[in-house]
TrEMBL record:
<protein>
    <recommendedName>
        <fullName>SseB family protein</fullName>
    </recommendedName>
</protein>
């Protein structure tokens, strides 16, 4: 897949949600894994070096929030009232990482007690971090 757009990811997500087909979900994951970067939001802090990708708790489990593009990260950060993601200029601080580095980072969070990854929260999908290696193996085995 060459350079994907936000609309491509949204279309693949919609298709996977509508069909419920495992192959459509695999295609969505493959697209996300082949993006050049993943994006994380971070709480606004004075010191840049103190900023870390946001980990939130849902259903009593810690999740790392990942976004496939900066706009989705910005929208989510602005949607969380009093979440601490927006600076005084109305911007959300976003940390962008090379996707392979981001996958390594997310995978390592499992050993720190983080349960899962939520991709494009508001209209996205999720997975326990423990399932990521199997997902990656499944979608890359078809190359």
């Amino acid at each position: 897949m060459d350079q994907l757009t936000n609309n491509d990811i949204d279309s693949l997500l919609q298709k996977a949600k509508t069909s419920g087909d495992k192959e459509d979900l695999a295609t969505l994951w493959k697209a996300a894994l082949n993006l050049p970067q993943w994006h994380f939001i971070t709480k606004h802090t004075e010191k840049l070096e103190d900023r870390r990708p946001f980990i939130g708790v849902l259903d009593n489990q810690p999740w790392v929030f990942v976004f496939t593009d900066r706009q989705k990260a910005q929208e989510f950060g602005q949607s969380v009232k009093d979440g601490g993601f927006v600076d005084d200029k109305g911007s959300v601080m976003i940390i962008s990482m090379d996707t392979h580095r981001a996958i390594d980072y997310v995978t390592a969070l499992s050993s720190k007690g983080v349960f899962g990854v939520r991709i494009n929260e508001l209209n996205g999908w999720f997975s326990p971090i423990a399932n990521l290696p199997a997902i990656i193996n499944h979608v890359t085995a078809k190359d």
